Structures are given as structure tokens and as C-alpha cells.
Amino acid sequence: MKRSTTRTILVIAAITAVIALAIGSVQPALAPGRGGPGGSKPTAVEDNPEAAEQGEEVAERMEALERAREAGKVGQQRPIEAAATPGWAGEIPFEASAPDDWEPAIAADPGSAFVYTLVTRYGTGKPPGCSGNCPNPWIALRISSDGGATWGATKALCPCKGSGQFDPIVEVVPSSGQVYAVYMNGYNVMFTKSTNRGQTWSAPVKTYGNVSWNDKPVLAMSDDGQKVYISFNGPTGGDPWAAVSSDAGATWTQTKLVDSSRYYFAFDADVAPNGTAYFAETAILYGGGGNKGTTPNDVIEEHVFILRPGQTTWEDHLVASIQPGLACTAAGCPPDFYLGHSALSVDANNNVLLLYDGATAAGGLQRIYSQRSTDGGNTWQANVFLSPSGEEATAPALESRGAGDVRAWWQQTSGGGNADQWNTWYSASTNGGATWSAPVKLSDAGGGAAYKTVNGYLEIYGDYGEIAITNAGKTIAIWGEGLSYDGPGGVWFNRQP
User: Fold this and answer.
1) What whole-number distance in Å separates Cα of residue 132 and Cα of residue 144?
2) In whole angstroms, what is the distance from residue 22 CA to residue 296 CA?
3) Is the dihedral angle over the CA atoms 386, 95, 83, 81 positive or is it negative?
4) CB–CB of 220/229 below 8 Å?
């Protein structure tokens, strides 16, 4: 999870139980060294400013789900009469009956019509295939073999015993079609892969070595899948780390990228055709209780970390410094929820594109910025705006294909920055991000859930969504919508038919 906030004393009993689950009940097979054999490492709460808040967030989300169930406000479906945005199939839920899904990931195989989606699922009890000491939430997997037109049954990515599972990321190895995934098991980042199009998955491998806690991973790999790169934040106080495997995820080494007073959030990663690896990370001053980056002195930094072939040291490139934008004031929402997101992709010509959200004045409305580099990240061209002025925009997603073909979506308010109605917007570029097409609205259902109206949805649900391009060159975008920060909500997607 990227961020959460301090809660009231009313949920202390639930919080205590959930924290015990998230930190103390991880099985040794999944998390060696934490509370088990050889357990000399400190627990996650000792130097992790967000660890206690993870348990609080789960407890609050479960309470919100129960209230919504009692009020008949759970579930989602596309209204029959809804008209799809021209050129799109129409927004539909990831799974209509799911009680509470958020923070989805998606990946498409460039060599076949297979598409893979993962979501963090609350409120269904134990995942399929797990019996006893099962995670809550857990990572739900669905697979399409026809470019996203139809989807197979939901199953668990890993029906593993242990604590809650969070923050899934999925990618497809370009040359082989193998599928790689990472997720958090409590505060451990785990790696798993499939060699048979997602039908079975390898036993999860820990990626964090002796790093005592880790949070919010991103994942990328070389075209042949041998070099695998993960970034997460960890000790001390949110420093950025890199975990690298040179044997397709079997073994891992870890390196701290920066020793800093700032909290780094890894949001995206990619590996260029020439083998250069990139991480897009946002650095924010951590104020605690969701107050990261929400004062005028808390300038937000957009970093790109780069590891070039033959190098052993990561380069740190500060691409932009921007002002913190609109604070989230809705019930249960941490003030920094809308700020500090980024996305990155590299095209076939090794050109790098970075998107991020930010404001020109502290507390102002954010826009989506686009900057590109044509020299491997050494220098960056002047920014281009994707979103309009006068609205709050946040949480961009980005993917590229071929030479300069890039696609993006973001979430944006409707009605002059009023943050109680949101929509998801899409734009594309054919010249690597130098210019962009006029935005079109992807959240076109206009109803079908308690959190949806004809004007948009009530709240962004989760810190991120993703975008993919199928082997036929079609776009699929996936994101979360909800009643509030605490939920419940659902994951929705739209695609080009």
C-alpha cells in the first residue's frame, strides 16, 4: 500500500487483531527471519512509519464494507442503457459480484492475445484453494485469452497461508510469454511466475534479503526475462531500494538507492530494448498521519533511477520538483492521497517518457505533466500538459509500443476541481509524448454502483491502476472507483474493441 492515515480509538480492537495478522502470522516458508526461525530482524513496526497504519486501514475498510452490505450498496454492473465512448467497448467491472476490490494491475502478452489482471480483494473470506490461516485481503487473478473481450474464472494468485496480501504487479516476458508477478505478503515483497499462461504459479520467492521491511513494489524485466528488477521502499523511513535478479527471479540481491530523510514511492519501472533499467519514484517529506507533502515547504521531487548495462551503481536523476496539490478532505481520506504519483515507459527507440501529477502552487489543483528524454534519461525536455487547467488530476498510468506509440490515462474531477465527482480520461501520442490527442472519457458507465452517477464516481479507489496494449495494438485501461477512501469500491476497465 502506498499510504494510509491514523484512525480513531474506535477501531483499536480490530486494529490490534489485524496488525497481529499482518506482522506476526507470516509463515516461515514465505517470510524467513520475521518472527520465525532465525528471526533476528526487527519487526516491521520498529522503523516503518506506515506499518501500524496498514492494520488500521484494513480494519477501517472491513468496517466500511460491512456498513455498505447492511445498506445494500455492494456490487457493480454496467447499466444496459449506457452508451460507450466512441472507439471503446464500454466500461465494465472486473467482477460484478466482488464486494470490495482495489489497486489493480494488468499486463498483455505482446506475442499472443493473453491478458492478465490482478486486484487486491477484500471481504470474501479465504481465497480459493486456501484452508486455514488464509490472507485477508488476497490477490485475485483473472485471465483473458482473447485480448480482454472475455475473462476466465477468478482464482487466487497465491492461496498462501499467512498475512494479508497487497500491491500486486504483473508483467509478461516479451520473448517467451512467461508471466511474472510481485505482491506484498504483509510487509514482505514476494516474486512468483508462471510458465503456462497463468494456469499454475511457482512457489513465492522473497526478494528482500535482509531488508527488515519493504513496501509498494514495482517490477520490470529484460526482453528475455533473465534480468528482473524490483524497486520498493524500506528502511530507514521510506528509502528507495532495488532488488535485482540475474536468473529469472530465482535469487536476488538488494541495494539501497538513496539514504534520505524523504519517503520514496516507487510507481513504475521499465527496461529499454538496450537493457537499461528505469525506476520512476516520487520523494515526499513524511509528516505522519497522511500528512506527507501537504505543506508549502514539502516540495515533491520526481526522480528517475537508471542502471545501464555493465554498470553496478544506479544513477539518480531529479527530473522535476513540483508543489503539493489539493489535499483530500473527505472522511477517512489522508490529506496526501491525491498527490505524488508518476508513471514511466520506454519505447522501441529507447526513448523514455515520464508522467506525474503536481501543482504550480501549494494546495492548488494538480495537472498531469509529461516529460520525455531522447538520450537515455540524461536530459529531459520541457513538460507538456495532458490534463486541462481548472480540474484536479491525479494518478497517471502509461504504456508504450513500437517507436513513439504511447497511451495514458488519469483520473480527473468533474466540475471545477470539486473532488466528489471523478472520471477516468485517456489520451495517446504517436510521437513519443511530444503532442497528445484530445482526451476521451473512459468511465462511461454513468451508473451501476452506489458510488457511480451520470457525472462520475464518488472517489478514486486505491493509489494506482494500470494500462496495457494488446498484441493487436488495442488499449486496455483498469482502475478503481469507490464510495470513499475506506470503500467499498470496485475495479473497472475499458478497452478498445
Assistant:
1) 30
2) 35
3) negative
4) yes
For residue 465, the 8-state DSSP code is -
Phi, psi for residue 377 in degrees, rounded to 5: 90, 5
Q: Is the dihedral of CA 317, 320, 323, 326 positive or negative?
A: negative
Q: Give me 133's grid cell.
A: 490461516
Can you state the angle between helices 51-70 and 12-19, rounded to 10 degrees?
Answer: 120
| H or E, element range at 279 | strand 277-285
Categorise residue 373: left if φ over 0, alpha if ψ from -120 to 50, beta otherwise. beta
Burial tier of 306 (Cβ tally within 10 Å: 0-12, 13-18, 19+): buried
* Tens digits of residue pLDDT in 153-182: 999 999 988 789 999 999 999 999 999 999
Report the alpha-carbon distance of residue 362 to residue 364 in Å, rounded.
Answer: 5
Reference 480, options 182, 122, 53; nearest CA is 122
Number of H helices, E strands in the chain: 2, 31
What are residue 309's phi and psi, to 5 degrees?
Answer: -55, 135
* Domains by residue range for the chain, with CATH: 9-495 (2.120.10.10)
Cell triple for 69: 452490505
pTM: 0.91
Q: Supply φ then ψ for residue 413, to 5 degrees.
A: -70, 160
Tell me if 254 sits within 8 A of 243, measured CB to CB.
yes
Residue with cell 508543489: 323
User: Which region among 40-44, 295-299, 406-410 has the lowest average model confidence (pLDDT)?
Assistant: 40-44
C-alpha 249/C-alpha 443 separation (Å) is 36
In angstroms, rounded to a whole number, what is the distance separating the alpha carbons of residues 18 and 16? 6
Contact 284, 240 (CB under 8 A): no
Question: At 51, is the secondary structure helix, strand, or coil?
Answer: helix
CA distance 346 to 352: 4
Asked if pLDDT for residue 132 goes beyond 90, the answer is no
CA distance 413 to 464: 16
